[in-house]
Amino acid sequence: MSLKHDIEFTLNGVKRRATIDITMNALDMLREVIGLTGTKYGCGEGECGACTIQVDGVSLNSCLMFAVDCDGRNVTTIEGLANDGKGDALRDAFVEHGAVQCGFCTPGMMMQADHLLHKHEHPDEACVKRGLEGNLCRCTGYKKIVDAVVACGAAEATP
Amino acid sequence: MTELKHYFAPTSLDQAVERLKDGDVTILAGGTDLTPQSQAGRIKFKHTLMNIRHIPQLSGITLEGREIRIGALATITEIMEHPLIKERLPVLVEACDHFASDQIRNAGTIGGNICNASPAGDMLIPLLVLDACVELASMPEAKIYRHCMPLSTFFVGPGKTRKSLCELVTGVRIPIPEANHVARFYKHGTRPALDISTISIGIAGTLVDGSLSNVRVAFGAVAPTPTRAAQTEQALEGQRLDEATIDKVAAIARDEVKPIDDVRATAWYRKEMIHNITKRILSHVAQA
Ligand SMILES: Cc1cc2nc3c(=O)[nH]c(=O)nc-3n(C[C@H](O)[C@H](O)[C@H](O)COP(=O)(O)OP(=O)(O)OC[C@H]3O[C@@H](n4cnc5c(N)ncnc54)[C@H](O)[C@@H]3O)c2cc1C
Ligand code: FES
Ligand code: FES
Protein backbone atom coordinates (compact mmCIF):
# COMPACT_ATOMS: atom_id res chain seq x y z
CA MET A 1 0.00 0.00 0.00
CA SER A 2 1.26 3.41 -0.79
CA LEU A 3 1.61 5.93 1.95
CA LYS A 4 -1.25 8.39 2.49
CA HIS A 5 -1.17 11.83 4.04
CA ASP A 6 -3.83 14.37 5.04
CA ILE A 7 -3.34 17.90 3.82
CA GLU A 8 -5.26 21.14 4.28
CA PHE A 9 -5.00 24.06 1.91
CA THR A 10 -6.96 26.89 0.36
CA LEU A 11 -8.35 25.99 -3.04
CA ASN A 12 -9.95 28.79 -5.05
CA GLY A 13 -10.56 30.74 -1.86
CA VAL A 14 -12.10 27.87 0.12
CA LYS A 15 -10.37 25.75 2.80
CA ARG A 16 -10.11 22.11 1.71
CA ARG A 17 -8.87 18.89 3.18
CA ALA A 18 -7.73 15.94 1.16
CA THR A 19 -6.20 12.55 1.82
CA ILE A 20 -3.66 11.82 -0.84
CA ASP A 21 -0.97 9.40 -1.84
CA ILE A 22 2.45 10.90 -0.91
CA THR A 23 3.91 10.31 -4.36
CA MET A 24 0.92 11.78 -6.23
CA ASN A 25 1.39 14.99 -8.18
CA ALA A 26 -0.85 18.03 -7.71
CA LEU A 27 -2.45 17.58 -11.14
CA ASP A 28 -3.68 14.06 -10.33
CA MET A 29 -4.94 15.29 -6.97
CA LEU A 30 -6.95 18.10 -8.57
CA ARG A 31 -8.44 15.92 -11.26
CA GLU A 32 -8.87 12.58 -9.55
CA VAL A 33 -9.18 13.24 -5.82
CA ILE A 34 -10.92 16.61 -5.82
CA GLY A 35 -12.69 16.28 -9.15
CA LEU A 36 -11.74 19.60 -10.72
CA THR A 37 -11.01 18.64 -14.30
CA GLY A 38 -10.44 22.13 -15.74
CA THR A 39 -6.70 21.70 -15.25
CA LYS A 40 -5.48 19.51 -18.11
CA TYR A 41 -2.94 16.74 -18.49
CA GLY A 42 -0.92 17.26 -21.66
CA CYS A 43 2.56 15.83 -21.25
CA GLY A 44 3.05 15.18 -17.54
CA GLU A 45 6.61 16.47 -17.66
CA GLY A 46 6.63 20.25 -17.70
CA GLU A 47 6.77 20.79 -21.44
CA CYS A 48 3.26 21.91 -22.40
CA GLY A 49 1.76 24.11 -19.67
CA ALA A 50 -1.75 22.59 -19.96
CA CYS A 51 -1.62 21.85 -16.22
CA THR A 52 -0.69 25.42 -15.14
CA ILE A 53 -2.12 26.52 -11.79
CA GLN A 54 -1.19 29.30 -9.36
CA VAL A 55 0.25 28.59 -5.92
CA ASP A 56 0.89 31.43 -3.45
CA GLY A 57 0.57 33.92 -6.28
CA VAL A 58 2.88 32.34 -8.86
CA SER A 59 2.13 30.09 -11.81
CA LEU A 60 3.60 26.63 -12.01
CA ASN A 61 3.07 23.26 -13.65
CA SER A 62 0.91 21.11 -11.39
CA CYS A 63 2.34 17.97 -13.01
CA LEU A 64 5.77 18.90 -11.59
CA MET A 65 4.51 19.51 -8.07
CA PHE A 66 3.99 16.98 -5.31
CA ALA A 67 0.39 17.14 -4.08
CA VAL A 68 1.61 17.05 -0.44
CA ASP A 69 3.44 20.31 -1.15
CA CYS A 70 0.01 22.02 -1.43
CA ASP A 71 -0.33 21.61 2.33
CA GLY A 72 -0.93 25.00 3.98
CA ARG A 73 -0.72 26.89 0.70
CA ASN A 74 -3.04 28.95 -1.46
CA VAL A 75 -3.94 27.22 -4.73
CA THR A 76 -5.92 28.68 -7.63
CA THR A 77 -7.11 26.71 -10.64
CA ILE A 78 -9.01 27.72 -13.77
CA GLU A 79 -12.25 27.07 -11.85
CA GLY A 80 -11.18 29.78 -9.39
CA LEU A 81 -10.25 32.19 -12.15
CA ALA A 82 -13.68 31.60 -13.73
CA ASN A 83 -15.30 33.03 -10.59
CA ASP A 84 -13.12 36.11 -10.60
CA GLY A 85 -13.80 39.42 -12.39
CA LYS A 86 -10.28 39.42 -13.77
CA GLY A 87 -10.98 36.03 -15.30
CA ASP A 88 -14.05 37.42 -17.10
CA ALA A 89 -12.04 40.08 -18.92
CA LEU A 90 -9.45 37.54 -20.00
CA ARG A 91 -12.09 35.04 -21.14
CA ASP A 92 -13.91 37.73 -23.14
CA ALA A 93 -10.62 38.72 -24.78
CA PHE A 94 -9.96 35.07 -25.73
CA VAL A 95 -13.45 34.78 -27.22
CA GLU A 96 -13.28 38.08 -29.11
CA HIS A 97 -9.92 37.29 -30.65
CA GLY A 98 -10.76 33.71 -31.56
CA ALA A 99 -8.00 32.46 -29.28
CA VAL A 100 -9.79 29.19 -28.53
CA GLN A 101 -10.09 26.36 -31.04
CA CYS A 102 -10.16 22.88 -29.52
CA GLY A 103 -9.75 24.52 -26.11
CA PHE A 104 -7.43 21.98 -24.57
CA CYS A 105 -4.60 24.44 -23.94
CA THR A 106 -6.97 27.24 -22.87
CA PRO A 107 -7.14 26.68 -19.09
CA GLY A 108 -3.35 26.57 -18.86
CA MET A 109 -3.00 29.55 -21.18
CA MET A 110 -5.50 31.56 -19.11
CA MET A 111 -3.79 30.72 -15.80
CA GLN A 112 -0.40 31.70 -17.19
CA ALA A 113 -1.77 34.82 -18.90
CA ASP A 114 -3.45 35.87 -15.63
CA HIS A 115 -0.14 35.54 -13.80
CA LEU A 116 1.57 37.52 -16.55
CA LEU A 117 -1.02 40.30 -16.29
CA HIS A 118 -0.44 40.50 -12.54
CA LYS A 119 3.29 40.98 -13.06
CA HIS A 120 3.13 43.24 -16.11
CA GLU A 121 0.05 45.41 -16.17
CA HIS A 122 0.23 46.37 -19.84
CA PRO A 123 2.42 43.82 -21.54
CA ASP A 124 3.46 44.28 -25.17
CA GLU A 125 3.58 41.45 -27.68
CA ALA A 126 7.18 40.46 -26.90
CA CYS A 127 6.44 40.32 -23.18
CA VAL A 128 3.35 38.13 -23.72
CA LYS A 129 5.23 35.77 -26.05
CA ARG A 130 7.97 35.45 -23.47
CA GLY A 131 5.48 34.84 -20.65
CA LEU A 132 3.63 32.12 -22.58
CA GLU A 133 6.77 30.24 -23.65
CA GLY A 134 5.91 27.32 -21.43
CA ASN A 135 2.45 26.79 -22.97
CA LEU A 136 1.91 24.81 -26.14
CA CYS A 137 -1.10 25.12 -28.46
CA ARG A 138 -1.60 22.69 -31.31
CA CYS A 139 -4.41 24.65 -33.00
CA THR A 140 -4.26 28.42 -33.06
CA GLY A 141 -0.72 29.19 -34.15
CA TYR A 142 -0.48 31.40 -31.03
CA LYS A 143 -1.10 34.72 -32.75
CA LYS A 144 -4.69 35.02 -31.59
CA ILE A 145 -3.78 34.02 -28.07
CA VAL A 146 -1.02 36.62 -27.90
CA ASP A 147 -3.37 39.25 -29.37
CA ALA A 148 -6.01 38.39 -26.77
CA VAL A 149 -3.64 38.79 -23.83
CA VAL A 150 -2.14 42.03 -25.18
CA ALA A 151 -5.68 43.39 -25.72
CA CYS A 152 -6.77 42.37 -22.23
CA GLY A 153 -3.79 44.20 -20.71
CA ALA A 154 -4.41 47.25 -22.86
CA ALA A 155 -8.13 47.32 -21.96
CA GLU A 156 -7.27 47.38 -18.29
CA ALA A 157 -5.07 50.38 -18.97
CA THR A 158 -8.08 52.46 -20.09
CA PRO A 159 -10.40 52.92 -17.09
CA MET B 1 6.94 -0.30 -5.27
CA THR B 2 8.40 2.50 -3.24
CA GLU B 3 9.91 1.94 0.16
CA LEU B 4 8.47 5.24 1.28
CA LYS B 5 7.33 5.05 4.91
CA HIS B 6 7.14 8.66 6.11
CA TYR B 7 6.45 12.19 5.00
CA PHE B 8 8.11 14.95 6.99
CA ALA B 9 7.90 18.72 6.58
CA PRO B 10 10.30 20.28 9.11
CA THR B 11 9.89 23.91 10.12
CA SER B 12 13.44 24.41 11.36
CA LEU B 13 16.93 23.52 10.21
CA ASP B 14 17.53 21.57 13.44
CA GLN B 15 14.60 19.27 12.77
CA ALA B 16 15.71 18.74 9.20
CA VAL B 17 19.34 17.80 9.87
CA GLU B 18 18.33 15.64 12.84
CA ARG B 19 16.10 13.65 10.52
CA LEU B 20 18.89 13.38 7.96
CA LYS B 21 21.11 11.56 10.48
CA ASP B 22 20.18 8.11 9.21
CA GLY B 23 20.71 9.18 5.59
CA ASP B 24 17.51 7.43 4.52
CA VAL B 25 15.74 10.55 3.29
CA THR B 26 14.69 11.88 -0.12
CA ILE B 27 14.74 15.67 -0.07
CA LEU B 28 12.00 17.61 -1.86
CA ALA B 29 12.43 21.29 -2.81
CA GLY B 30 10.52 22.65 -5.83
CA GLY B 31 9.96 19.18 -7.23
CA THR B 32 10.61 20.04 -10.89
CA ASP B 33 13.29 17.36 -11.13
CA LEU B 34 12.04 14.98 -8.47
CA THR B 35 8.46 14.67 -9.78
CA PRO B 36 9.31 13.52 -13.31
CA GLN B 37 12.30 11.46 -12.13
CA SER B 38 10.27 9.56 -9.55
CA GLN B 39 7.28 9.08 -11.82
CA ALA B 40 9.46 7.69 -14.58
CA GLY B 41 11.06 5.34 -12.03
CA ARG B 42 14.51 6.88 -12.55
CA ILE B 43 14.93 7.41 -8.82
CA LYS B 44 13.73 5.29 -5.92
CA PHE B 45 12.40 6.98 -2.81
CA LYS B 46 14.18 6.50 0.48
CA HIS B 47 12.20 5.78 3.67
CA THR B 48 11.30 9.40 4.29
CA LEU B 49 10.23 12.12 1.88
CA MET B 50 11.29 15.39 3.48
CA ASN B 51 9.78 18.62 2.17
CA ILE B 52 12.19 21.45 3.02
CA ARG B 53 9.92 24.30 1.92
CA HIS B 54 9.01 25.44 5.43
CA ILE B 55 12.55 25.89 6.76
CA PRO B 56 13.08 29.67 7.03
CA GLN B 57 16.91 29.44 7.06
CA LEU B 58 16.87 28.19 3.48
CA SER B 59 15.20 31.27 1.97
CA GLY B 60 16.29 34.71 0.98
CA ILE B 61 19.02 36.48 -0.91
CA THR B 62 21.26 38.58 1.33
CA LEU B 63 24.46 40.54 1.45
CA GLU B 64 26.74 39.06 4.12
CA GLY B 65 30.03 40.92 4.42
CA ARG B 66 31.82 40.56 1.10
CA GLU B 67 29.59 37.74 -0.07
CA ILE B 68 26.12 37.32 -1.46
CA ARG B 69 24.24 34.40 0.06
CA ILE B 70 21.46 32.80 -1.94
CA GLY B 71 19.30 30.47 0.15
CA ALA B 72 18.82 26.97 -1.26
CA LEU B 73 15.09 27.57 -1.69
CA ALA B 74 15.47 30.76 -3.76
CA THR B 75 13.65 30.12 -7.04
CA ILE B 76 15.11 30.93 -10.43
CA THR B 77 12.51 33.74 -10.74
CA GLU B 78 13.47 35.22 -7.36
CA ILE B 79 17.14 35.25 -8.34
CA MET B 80 16.40 36.74 -11.74
CA GLU B 81 14.37 39.61 -10.25
CA HIS B 82 16.43 40.38 -7.14
CA PRO B 83 18.02 43.88 -7.15
CA LEU B 84 21.22 42.66 -5.49
CA ILE B 85 21.73 39.96 -8.11
CA LYS B 86 20.88 42.29 -10.99
CA GLU B 87 23.38 44.84 -9.77
CA ARG B 88 26.26 42.65 -8.57
CA LEU B 89 25.90 39.30 -10.37
CA PRO B 90 24.27 40.04 -13.75
CA VAL B 91 25.74 36.86 -15.24
CA LEU B 92 23.39 34.87 -13.00
CA VAL B 93 20.43 36.81 -14.35
CA GLU B 94 21.62 35.89 -17.83
CA ALA B 95 21.51 32.20 -16.92
CA CYS B 96 18.07 32.49 -15.27
CA ASP B 97 16.78 34.24 -18.36
CA HIS B 98 17.45 31.16 -20.50
CA PHE B 99 16.11 28.69 -17.96
CA ALA B 100 13.13 26.54 -19.01
CA SER B 101 9.83 28.48 -18.85
CA ASP B 102 8.19 30.95 -16.47
CA GLN B 103 6.30 28.16 -14.68
CA ILE B 104 9.47 26.15 -14.08
CA ARG B 105 11.47 29.24 -13.05
CA ASN B 106 8.73 29.98 -10.49
CA ALA B 107 9.03 26.52 -8.92
CA GLY B 108 12.62 25.37 -9.47
CA THR B 109 15.17 26.29 -6.80
CA ILE B 110 18.90 26.93 -6.95
CA GLY B 111 19.49 24.24 -4.31
CA GLY B 112 17.62 21.73 -6.48
CA ASN B 113 19.62 22.73 -9.54
CA ILE B 114 22.90 22.24 -7.64
CA CYS B 115 21.90 18.92 -6.03
CA ASN B 116 20.43 17.48 -9.22
CA ALA B 117 24.00 17.89 -10.53
CA SER B 118 23.13 17.69 -14.20
CA PRO B 119 26.09 18.30 -16.54
CA ALA B 120 23.71 20.72 -18.29
CA GLY B 121 22.44 22.51 -15.15
CA ASP B 122 22.19 26.13 -16.19
CA MET B 123 22.94 27.83 -12.88
CA LEU B 124 26.06 25.75 -12.33
CA ILE B 125 28.25 27.26 -15.04
CA PRO B 126 27.93 30.91 -13.92
CA LEU B 127 28.23 29.80 -10.27
CA LEU B 128 31.50 28.01 -11.13
CA VAL B 129 33.04 31.06 -12.78
CA LEU B 130 31.90 33.22 -9.86
CA ASP B 131 33.85 31.01 -7.39
CA ALA B 132 30.68 30.02 -5.53
CA CYS B 133 30.76 27.80 -2.45
CA VAL B 134 28.02 25.41 -1.41
CA GLU B 135 26.83 25.68 2.21
CA LEU B 136 26.17 22.30 3.82
CA ALA B 137 24.57 21.43 7.14
CA SER B 138 24.42 18.14 9.05
CA MET B 139 24.17 16.88 12.63
CA PRO B 140 27.01 14.42 13.26
CA GLU B 141 26.59 14.65 17.06
CA ALA B 142 24.09 16.69 19.02
CA LYS B 143 24.77 20.00 17.30
CA ILE B 144 24.46 21.33 13.79
CA TYR B 145 27.70 21.23 11.85
CA ARG B 146 27.96 23.66 8.93
CA HIS B 147 30.67 24.01 6.35
CA CYS B 148 31.25 25.33 2.86
CA MET B 149 32.67 23.49 -0.13
CA PRO B 150 33.87 25.14 -3.36
CA LEU B 151 31.40 24.30 -6.12
CA SER B 152 34.39 23.42 -8.33
CA THR B 153 34.99 20.32 -6.17
CA PHE B 154 31.33 19.48 -5.48
CA PHE B 155 30.38 17.47 -8.57
CA VAL B 156 31.64 13.95 -9.17
CA GLY B 157 29.40 12.60 -11.94
CA PRO B 158 25.97 12.99 -13.53
CA GLY B 159 23.59 13.38 -10.56
CA LYS B 160 26.45 12.70 -8.14
CA THR B 161 28.03 15.12 -5.68
CA ARG B 162 30.36 15.09 -2.67
CA LYS B 163 27.38 15.86 -0.40
CA SER B 164 26.86 13.00 2.03
CA LEU B 165 23.42 11.47 2.51
CA CYS B 166 23.25 13.17 5.93
CA GLU B 167 23.83 16.66 4.56
CA LEU B 168 21.45 19.36 3.45
CA VAL B 169 22.43 22.17 1.10
CA THR B 170 21.35 25.35 2.88
CA GLY B 171 22.54 27.86 0.31
CA VAL B 172 25.30 29.10 -1.92
CA ARG B 173 27.82 31.87 -1.22
CA ILE B 174 29.35 34.03 -3.89
CA PRO B 175 32.18 36.52 -3.31
CA ILE B 176 31.20 39.95 -4.61
CA PRO B 177 33.19 40.61 -7.77
CA GLU B 178 35.39 43.69 -8.05
CA ALA B 179 34.44 46.66 -10.18
CA ASN B 180 36.46 45.63 -13.25
CA HIS B 181 35.22 42.05 -13.16
CA VAL B 182 33.57 40.73 -16.30
CA ALA B 183 31.51 37.57 -16.56
CA ARG B 184 29.59 36.10 -19.48
CA PHE B 185 27.31 33.10 -19.91
CA TYR B 186 26.08 31.58 -23.12
CA LYS B 187 23.67 28.68 -23.49
CA HIS B 188 23.31 27.01 -26.84
CA GLY B 189 20.17 25.06 -27.65
CA THR B 190 17.83 24.65 -30.56
CA ARG B 191 14.96 26.82 -29.34
CA PRO B 192 14.65 29.78 -26.98
CA ALA B 193 12.50 28.18 -24.27
CA LEU B 194 12.33 24.83 -22.50
CA ASP B 195 15.56 23.61 -23.93
CA ILE B 196 18.31 21.63 -22.28
CA SER B 197 21.70 23.07 -23.15
CA THR B 198 23.58 21.46 -26.02
CA ILE B 199 26.59 23.23 -24.63
CA SER B 200 27.00 26.17 -22.27
CA ILE B 201 29.97 28.37 -21.53
CA GLY B 202 30.87 30.70 -18.69
CA ILE B 203 33.90 32.98 -18.81
CA ALA B 204 34.93 35.44 -16.11
CA GLY B 205 37.94 37.43 -15.01
CA THR B 206 39.31 40.83 -14.14
CA LEU B 207 39.75 43.01 -17.20
CA VAL B 208 42.55 45.57 -17.02
CA ASP B 209 43.85 47.33 -20.13
CA GLY B 210 42.50 44.68 -22.45
CA SER B 211 44.03 41.77 -20.50
CA LEU B 212 42.13 39.19 -18.52
CA SER B 213 43.44 37.90 -15.19
CA ASN B 214 42.03 35.63 -12.46
CA VAL B 215 40.45 33.84 -15.38
CA ARG B 216 37.64 31.36 -14.83
CA VAL B 217 36.24 29.26 -17.65
CA ALA B 218 33.56 26.60 -17.22
CA PHE B 219 31.75 24.41 -19.72
CA GLY B 220 28.38 22.66 -19.41
CA ALA B 221 27.09 19.55 -21.19
CA VAL B 222 30.50 18.48 -22.50
CA ALA B 223 31.58 16.19 -19.63
CA PRO B 224 29.97 14.03 -16.92
CA THR B 225 29.86 17.11 -14.67
CA PRO B 226 29.83 20.86 -15.20
CA THR B 227 33.56 21.59 -15.16
CA ARG B 228 36.20 24.27 -15.01
CA ALA B 229 38.55 24.19 -17.99
CA ALA B 230 42.08 24.39 -16.57
CA GLN B 231 43.98 24.48 -19.88
CA THR B 232 41.76 27.14 -21.38
CA GLU B 233 42.04 29.21 -18.21
CA GLN B 234 45.81 28.93 -18.24
CA ALA B 235 46.04 29.95 -21.89
CA LEU B 236 43.98 33.07 -21.18
CA GLU B 237 45.55 34.12 -17.91
CA GLY B 238 47.20 37.52 -18.13
CA GLN B 239 46.90 37.66 -21.92
CA ARG B 240 45.83 40.63 -24.01
CA LEU B 241 42.63 39.74 -25.83
CA ASP B 242 43.89 40.30 -29.36
CA GLU B 243 42.79 38.27 -32.34
CA ALA B 244 45.72 35.83 -32.25
CA THR B 245 45.19 35.06 -28.55
CA ILE B 246 41.45 34.59 -28.99
CA ASP B 247 42.01 32.16 -31.89
CA LYS B 248 44.58 30.21 -29.91
CA VAL B 249 42.41 30.03 -26.78
CA ALA B 250 39.33 28.93 -28.75
CA ALA B 251 41.34 26.09 -30.30
CA ILE B 252 42.62 25.01 -26.89
CA ALA B 253 39.06 25.03 -25.56
CA ARG B 254 37.93 22.80 -28.42
CA ASP B 255 40.70 20.32 -27.69
CA GLU B 256 40.22 20.41 -23.95
CA VAL B 257 36.57 19.28 -23.89
CA LYS B 258 35.67 15.61 -24.27
CA PRO B 259 31.94 15.57 -25.02
CA ILE B 260 29.81 12.59 -26.06
CA ASP B 261 27.29 11.98 -28.82
CA ASP B 262 23.70 12.01 -27.60
CA VAL B 263 20.20 12.87 -28.78
CA ARG B 264 20.88 16.59 -28.54
CA ALA B 265 24.15 16.78 -30.49
CA THR B 266 27.20 14.89 -31.65
CA ALA B 267 30.55 15.21 -29.92
CA TRP B 268 31.97 16.85 -33.05
CA TYR B 269 29.24 19.49 -33.08
CA ARG B 270 29.73 20.21 -29.39
CA LYS B 271 33.47 20.72 -29.87
CA GLU B 272 32.83 23.10 -32.79
CA MET B 273 30.31 25.04 -30.72
CA ILE B 274 32.75 25.32 -27.81
CA HIS B 275 35.33 26.72 -30.23
CA ASN B 276 33.00 29.17 -31.95
CA ILE B 277 31.24 30.45 -28.86
CA THR B 278 34.43 30.81 -26.83
CA LYS B 279 35.75 32.93 -29.68
CA ARG B 280 32.58 34.98 -29.83
CA ILE B 281 32.45 35.63 -26.09
CA LEU B 282 36.12 36.65 -25.94
CA SER B 283 35.71 39.00 -28.89
CA HIS B 284 32.76 40.65 -27.16
CA VAL B 285 34.73 41.00 -23.94
CA ALA B 286 37.65 42.49 -25.87
CA GLN B 287 35.36 45.11 -27.37
CA ALA B 288 33.64 45.94 -24.08
C1 LIG C 1 10.55 20.67 -18.65
C2 LIG C 1 11.76 20.97 -17.80
C3 LIG C 1 12.68 21.93 -18.25
C4 LIG C 1 13.82 22.21 -17.49
N1 LIG C 1 14.69 23.14 -17.96
C5 LIG C 1 15.84 23.38 -17.30
C6 LIG C 1 16.78 24.33 -17.79
O1 LIG C 1 16.55 25.01 -18.80
N2 LIG C 1 17.95 24.48 -17.11
C7 LIG C 1 18.24 23.75 -15.99
O2 LIG C 1 19.31 23.93 -15.43
N3 LIG C 1 17.34 22.89 -15.47
C8 LIG C 1 16.16 22.67 -16.10
N4 LIG C 1 15.25 21.76 -15.59
C9 LIG C 1 15.58 21.03 -14.35
C10 LIG C 1 15.02 21.60 -13.03
O3 LIG C 1 13.92 22.45 -13.25
C11 LIG C 1 16.10 22.36 -12.25
O4 LIG C 1 17.19 21.52 -12.02
C12 LIG C 1 15.60 22.95 -10.92
O5 LIG C 1 16.49 23.95 -10.49
C13 LIG C 1 15.46 21.91 -9.83
O6 LIG C 1 15.04 22.54 -8.62
P1 LIG C 1 13.83 21.97 -7.73
O7 LIG C 1 13.72 22.85 -6.55
O8 LIG C 1 12.62 21.79 -8.55
O9 LIG C 1 14.46 20.55 -7.34
P2 LIG C 1 13.79 19.22 -6.79
O10 LIG C 1 13.17 18.47 -7.91
O11 LIG C 1 12.96 19.48 -5.60
O12 LIG C 1 15.12 18.47 -6.33
C14 LIG C 1 16.14 18.11 -7.25
C15 LIG C 1 17.16 17.20 -6.55
O13 LIG C 1 17.92 17.92 -5.59
C16 LIG C 1 17.73 17.41 -4.27
N5 LIG C 1 17.64 18.60 -3.42
C17 LIG C 1 16.88 19.71 -3.67
N6 LIG C 1 17.15 20.67 -2.76
C18 LIG C 1 18.10 20.18 -1.94
C19 LIG C 1 18.80 20.71 -0.80
N7 LIG C 1 18.58 21.98 -0.37
N8 LIG C 1 19.71 19.95 -0.17
C20 LIG C 1 19.96 18.69 -0.62
N9 LIG C 1 19.34 18.13 -1.67
C21 LIG C 1 18.41 18.86 -2.34
C22 LIG C 1 16.48 16.57 -4.34
O14 LIG C 1 16.52 15.52 -3.42
C23 LIG C 1 16.52 16.07 -5.78
O15 LIG C 1 17.38 14.97 -5.88
C24 LIG C 1 14.07 21.50 -16.29
C25 LIG C 1 13.13 20.57 -15.82
C26 LIG C 1 11.98 20.29 -16.57
C27 LIG C 1 10.99 19.30 -16.04
S1 FES D 1 0.96 18.36 -18.27
FE1 FES D 1 2.15 19.61 -17.00
S2 FES D 1 3.33 20.71 -18.42
FE2 FES D 1 2.33 19.30 -19.69
S1 FES E 1 -6.78 25.59 -28.93
FE1 FES E 1 -6.31 23.52 -29.32
S2 FES E 1 -4.44 23.30 -28.30
FE2 FES E 1 -4.75 25.38 -28.20
Beta-strand level of the residues of chain B, as a percent range? Answer: 25-35%
Uncertain runs of chain B are: none
Order of helices and strands of chain A: EEHEEEHHHHH
Give the name of the CATH architecture of the largest domain in chain A: Roll
| Chain pair sharing the greatest interface | A-B, 32 and 31 residues
Walk across the major sheet of chain B and give the strand order: 4-5-10-6-7
How far apart are the first and last residues' alpha carbons of chain A, in Å?
Answer: 57 Å
Q: Your description of this structure?
A:
The complex is a heterodimer of chains A (159) and B (288). Chain A has 2 domains: 4-78, Beta-grasp domain (Ubiquitin-like (UB roll)); 84-157, [2Fe-2S]-binding domain (DNA polymerase, domain 1), CATH 1.10.150. Chain A is 39% helix and 17% strand. Chain A contains 6 helices and 5 strands, in the order ββαβββααααα. Chain A has helices at residues 26-34, 78-82, 85-96, 106-119, 125-131, 143-157, and strands at 4-11, 14-21, 52-55, 58-61, 74-76. Chain A has a 5-stranded mixed sheet with strand order 2-1-5-3-4, with helices on both faces. In chain A, helix 3 packs across helix 6. Chain A is globular and about 45 Å long. The mean pLDDT of chain A is 95. Chain B is α+β, with helices and mostly antiparallel strands and 288 residues long. Chain B has 3 domains: 6-51, Uridine Diphospho-n-acetylenolpyruvylglucosamine Reductase, domain 2, CATH 3.30.43; 56-175, Uridine Diphospho-n-acetylenolpyruvylglucosamine Reductase, domain 3; 181-286, CO dehydrogenase flavoprotein, C-terminal domain (Enolase-like, domain 1, 2-Layer Sandwich), CATH 3.30.390. Chain B contains 11 helices and 14 strands. In chain B, the strands form 4 sheets. A 5-stranded antiparallel sheet of chain B has the order 4-5-10-6-7. In chain B, a hairpin with a 2-residue loop joins strand 8 and strand 9. Chain B is globular and about 60 Å long. Chain B starts with 5 loop residues before the first strand and ends with a helix. The model of chain B has no long low-confidence stretch (mean pLDDT 95). The interface between A and B is medium-sized, with 32 and 31 residues. Bound molecules: flavin-adenine dinucleotide and FE2/S2 (inorganic) cluster (2 copies). One FE2/S2 (inorganic) cluster binds next to loops of chain A.
